[in-house]
Amino acid sequence: MIKKIPKLQIIRHITQIIFLIFIPELFTLVFSQLKEIYSMIVKGNFNIGEAWPHLIGAIIIMTLTIILGRFFCGWFCTFGAVNDFIYLVSHKLFKIKFRVNEEIDSKLKYIKYVVLLFIAAVIWTSGSSYFDSYSPWNAFAGMDNISGAVVQYTAGFIILAFIAIGAIFIERFFCRYLCPLGAVFSVLSKLRIFKISKPTDECGNCRLCTNNCSMGIGLYKMEKVSSGECINCFKCIEVCHRKNPQASILNERVNPLFPSAVAIAAFTGLNSLGSVMSKNNSAAHVGSTNNISADNNSSKEDKYKDGTYTGIGHGKNPDLKVSVTIKDGKIASVEIVSANEPKGKEAFSVVPKEIIGSQSTSVDAVTGATLTSKGIMEAVNDALKQAKISNVSTDSSSKENKYKDGTYTGIGHGKNPDLKVSVTVKDSKIASVEIVSANEPKGKEPINVIPKEIIAAQTTSVDAVTGATLTSKGIMMAVNDALSKAQK
Ligand code: SF4
Ligand code: SF4
């Protein structure tokens, strides 16, 4: 008998490949937007009207998940697709077969909620960047510069390797047990109107649907799949010879291609609309700042009070402490007071000299010691904040009337040097932040998000975008530099 080609799986895998090629950062993008929504809610300043244009990805995906279920997971997500393809190769090519006991599987699925709770309660709430190097998403996102990324995210790569090995043996290993985003979607999708129905009285004893379910759901004992674990992959529908499992919306049978097409159209259509809205916002801002002067060199002019200041940064480990001396308004010396940096020796001697030589903290990181180099720059920046007459602050009482109106240019150092911004101050407030030039391969998301956050909070102390920490920090550094020229 000729085996029927699973049409839906071919369409699904083609969709996954398209998303993988064109929006490889989709997982990190949605996850970082979720973090922003969480932060806004925790801080009590969530405003859907303001948040909509730059949080559109997460908002669309969450709405879609509530109505139609986890199409994001089954069809769009980069991480999910990679899990699928690893398993497909191991299963079809190397015939690796491994089944997790149903009871153990259902218990292991709770781990992802613990991961989510830990990330939200410990990492997001504290705003700590300590765990950045442990992030498998940062490691995954840094694959375009693998040698640098391996050094910077060693722990993240180890976790990534563990996930890849897991995916060889267990289909959707990461999605089933570890994914914090999957945990959110699992809860949200409980409310969906689109479900798989599977009348048990029409079933045989084959359990083909259960044995082929990507997420290990025990379909054999259900009339309808209400589980939040279902990712709408439709393997159960295609594998059944009796055509027993069927897609249904509000109990009415539908062709599964219909909700799939709706999900793809809704996501791509609304996402494009969001991009246009963001671009229009940016264009409006550019128009408002073009005719105002810019100043590139004054960051090297005298702008600090003489004295010695201590600053703290985070290199490979926290609490990297420096002492910065200002003489005649210039950075005269940078001393490393204490640091727990195993590979820091070269960075300790090179980076302070570069900072003094260029009178800027936007210097090149030492190869092989990127985190330590950045930690030193961060600590020196921290010290210099105190040396400035005043700086951007989270204290609302000091947000008023401290900048001269005008447009100022600032330089920062993200993943690469020379990240240039133009900041417009109006009525003593940060009115716009434009990225003038940046050589940041994965900078799209922070370039959209960070300027808006800075304007909304009137401070450069905002949360970095997950998976693009360096670019986010570079933008904040550049805005700080520009604002130092706007001081009254
Ligand atoms: S569970 Fe997580 S990794 Fe898996 S597809 Fe969903 S969002 Fe992506
Ligand atoms: S129940 Fe069906 S559609 Fe849902 S995950 Fe399992 S195989 Fe895929």
TrEMBL record:
<keyword id="KW-0812">Transmembrane</keyword>
<dbReference type="Pfam" id="PF04205">
    <property type="entry name" value="FMN_bind"/>
</dbReference>
<feature type="transmembrane region" description="Helical">
    <location>
        <begin position="110"/>
        <end position="131"/>
    </location>
</feature>
<keyword id="KW-0408">Iron</keyword>
<feature type="transmembrane region" description="Helical">
    <location>
        <begin position="56"/>
        <end position="89"/>
    </location>
</feature>
<keyword id="KW-0813">Transport</keyword>
<keyword id="KW-0479">Metal-binding</keyword>
<dbReference type="GO" id="GO:0005886">
    <property type="term" value="C:plasma membrane"/>
</dbReference>
<keyword id="KW-1133">Transmembrane helix</keyword>
<keyword id="KW-0411">Iron-sulfur</keyword>
<dbReference type="InterPro" id="IPR051684">
    <property type="entry name" value="Electron_Trans/Redox"/>
</dbReference>
<keyword id="KW-0249">Electron transport</keyword>
<dbReference type="InterPro" id="IPR007329">
    <property type="entry name" value="FMN-bd"/>
</dbReference>
<feature type="transmembrane region" description="Helical">
    <location>
        <begin position="12"/>
        <end position="31"/>
    </location>
</feature>
<keyword id="KW-0472">Membrane</keyword>
<protein>
    <submittedName>
        <fullName>FMN-binding domain protein</fullName>
    </submittedName>
</protein>
<dbReference type="GO" id="GO:0010181">
    <property type="term" value="F:FMN binding"/>
</dbReference>
<feature type="domain" description="FMN-binding">
    <location>
        <begin position="414"/>
        <end position="486"/>
    </location>
</feature>
<dbReference type="Pfam" id="PF12801">
    <property type="entry name" value="Fer4_5"/>
</dbReference>
<dbReference type="GO" id="GO:0046872">
    <property type="term" value="F:metal ion binding"/>
</dbReference>
<dbReference type="InterPro" id="IPR017896">
    <property type="entry name" value="4Fe4S_Fe-S-bd"/>
</dbReference>
<feature type="domain" description="FMN-binding">
    <location>
        <begin position="315"/>
        <end position="387"/>
    </location>
</feature>
<dbReference type="GO" id="GO:0051539">
    <property type="term" value="F:4 iron, 4 sulfur cluster binding"/>
</dbReference>
<feature type="transmembrane region" description="Helical">
    <location>
        <begin position="151"/>
        <end position="170"/>
    </location>
</feature>
<keyword id="KW-0004">4Fe-4S</keyword>
